[in-house]
Amino acid sequence: MAIIPLEEINNVRMHANIVEVIGSYIPLMHRGKNYFCVCPFHEDHSPSMSVSSEKQIYKCFSCGAAGNVITFIQNYENVSFIEAVQILAKRYGITLSNTISPSVNDKNARYYEMMDYAEKFFQNNLKTDLGKQARDYLKERGLDKQAISEFGIGLTLSDRKMLYRLLKGKKFTEKEMDDVALVNTHSDPYDYFVNRIMFPLHNPNGNIVGFSGRIFYESEAAKYVNTRETVIFKKGQILFNYHRAKPFIRNEKRVILVEGYMDAIRLYINGVKNVLAIMGTSLTKEQIALLRKLNVKIILCLDNDEAGQKAIYDIGQSLKKDNFEIEVIKLSGAKDPDEYVIKNGIEAFKKNLKETIKYLDFSLNYLKQNKNLHETVDLAKYINDVLADIASEKDEILIDITLKKLATDYNLEYDMLKDKLKQLETNENVKTEVSVDKQTNVKERPKNNKYIIACKKMLFYMMNEAKYVRIYQNNLVFLDNLNYREIAKAIIYYYETNKDINLADFLTFASTNERFYPIVLDIINECNEEEIDEDVFMDYLNSIQKGNKQKTIKELKESLKDELDKSKKIEIAMKIAELKKGSV
Fold first, then answer.
1. Rg (CA), the chain
2. What phi and psi values does residue 205 have, to the nearest 5 degrees?
3. Helix/strand/coil for 517
4. What is the pTM of this model?
5. Residues 209-241: pLDDT tens digits?
């Protein structure tokens, strides 16, 4: 893969203002000299990420995430470093000297290549005479050639070794085929999918990681068969259509969540492109993290059956904890969005899209189900459920309206409801604090001694300004820690190559070294808020020199104990005395 020259990368970094870039993804609040936002890299419920306009770096005080504008794009968009540079270059109209195709993780590259071959093979099967029945079925379902092509829909035939022979001919091993669940090779090899219409499943980067096969004829077999969990396919880590819909979601500032991929396809081909399918009735932490990166309003549009309505309630509860704005679409007369659009047309769906209800209103109605509110026990349970439901609500006006409505509708004392809610809110806060404490304890770092602290502070100063690199060189400072020594060498190399240094650009350079890059981030995380001061730098430098002397004295004393030669003992004792005087 071609390499972008460092000076071009730094040029992109200098043009891409970190406040502007992060602010386009996540709302920023100006506080003092920095900006703050909710950290997208962990389950953050209050602004814990600091963004420095002066230093052009970001840092999360909770999870420790840190970096510059390029590493932010890399981690937020889940792309490679080179792809992050390309994204920013395109955004700011900067031409790069090398044309670099998007890279994939080397260890998975063979798997992705194999999945691409499988997709093309399935697509070709659909176009043959043997694919006519499947094509007719797709046509009846309202999927034309353009939709089939756009979503990469294909077909597996009855020969259970067709794909196996193809992949064998492409020099893929049987183990590789089995690793991604395309071929079962445990005994006599055979293809996993037979006589099914094939829908490719992509990861957030757009790589095919699995397939969903659907029966298209009368059969007692399962209607759908999905790829099992593999080295590249984890169902709970993907959302169907994510890579395709992401730009439309950002443009619309809202995402429609549906259950099945046919629901998503139906809406997408009819012009409602900001749609994702969860392929089930629950959301995992990984899927919520993907949604958090989009930073948009969530519209839940799941199936109309009992399971679908329960899923809306449960998913809404999960999303509320992450402070998402949530609304709900209620479609009547159809079991799911796919059927609704076929029956009523896309304009009817768009009309419903304009008449969404707040998730709180949906949950208030949902909690009434299977309860007789004329009976005391059911009514008490309903009131308690509602209070528990709004205990985590942030909108005080919405809370007040809800309490007044409960008081009026069910002839209850408003103050009694408010007191009960306060108790629940207190319990909720205690749970949150305990959870945060646990999380903090898990990540608690070992305490640093004075020598380590001085090393980190000194290296941080050197990353920020050239004069501290020169002072370090002039004083011939020795760093006892190998990692810190390597970082110091890298700082000097960068400075001598570029005749200058700043933190954001050095971070770009350091990110190419996987071994010490995390240590550089750790240094920044601990020192980022410190003001740069030459006198303080000299204190750190002197502290390191003193620490080195103390270590040398300790080692000499140990050797003095074991030395038998009297003249050598005198020589060692003199060295110790000289070191203590500070003459060496």
1. 31
2. -85, -5
3. helix
4. 0.68
5. 999 999 999 888 899 999 999 999 999 999 999
